[in-house]
Amino acid sequence: MPSSIPEHAVSYLREKNVPDLMEYMLQELLQEQPEPSGIFPAALSEEDFLIAGPPAGGKGTQCEGIVERFGVVHISTGDLLRAEVKAGSPEGQQADEFMKSGGLVPDSLIIAMVKNRLNQPDVREKGWLLDGFPRTKAQAQALQEAGIIPQVMVLLEVPDDVLVERIEGRRNDPITGKVYHIKFNPPPADDKELLERLEQRKDDTREAMVSRLATYHKNCDDILSFYTHVLFKTDGNRDKKTVGADVTKAIEARMPK
């Protein structure tokens, strides 16, 4: 195999018989010799990452640093879902129907959106950073079956009690949209108007957070089992710059030389 592929990736590909599969596909391609079409990627990026962690674990902050350092395209399923709904795409229209009825958007629909986004020219050229996806074993299985495998999966680990404290203390300014924290980032004590209008989101409570964390922990091990060969775990309960430096170092160490 090409020397530019990391050894851990080579082992994984051999384990899954990918070389034999690729040889078979190449033979079929040479035999059929189809006309060029959109199925042939214009470029294959070597910078494909996945970041995971619990709610309020700091993924958003670290995503900003990864995008700035490596120039990849940040893909959040929440943002992607809203964009598809706004654009009125077939997938977006279906998702909108589920959300309006109070139901969950099916995995199959979300996965279709993710796969479509990953096939866009900017992503194929620059690489991608999947943020908080997959969230379930079924989603991880679907990505693997589609051949969507990150070079690095970053997992931010933060104790539950710290996460609950982060969430419980959050307060939103409904006018500016700015988010404060009564302990870690308190609003100006002399701004009485601001203090009076600050709100706590209904899902920023201890009860809601405990429920979200239970769901996260229930799915976490199953998801990680798909990415043991590319997994990097780091302590997210530290200064964001320290965490960011560790994440950058880990990604650089796993990229082709």
TrEMBL record:
Question: What superkingdom heads the lineage?
Answer: Eukaryota
Q: Which SUPFAM superfamilies match?
A: P-loop containing nucleoside triphosphate hydrolases (SSF52540)
Would you identify the family this protein belongs to, as annotated?
A: Belongs to the adenylate kinase family.
Keyword check for Nucleotide-binding: yes
> What broad taxonomic lineage does this protein's source fall under?
Eukaryota, Discoba, Euglenozoa, Kinetoplastea, Metakinetoplastina
What is the protein name for this chain?
Answer: Adenylate kinase, putative
Record-level Gene Ontology MF annotations: AMP kinase activity; ATP binding
Q: Which UniProt keywords apply?
A: Kinase, Nucleotide-binding, Transferase
The record, for HAMAP family, names:
Adenylate_kinase_Adk
Q: Which organism is it from?
A: Bodo saltans
Q: Which InterPro entries match?
A: Adenyl_kin_sub (IPR006259), Adenylat/UMP-CMP_kin (IPR000850), Adenylat_kinase_CS (IPR033690), P-loop_NTPase (IPR027417)
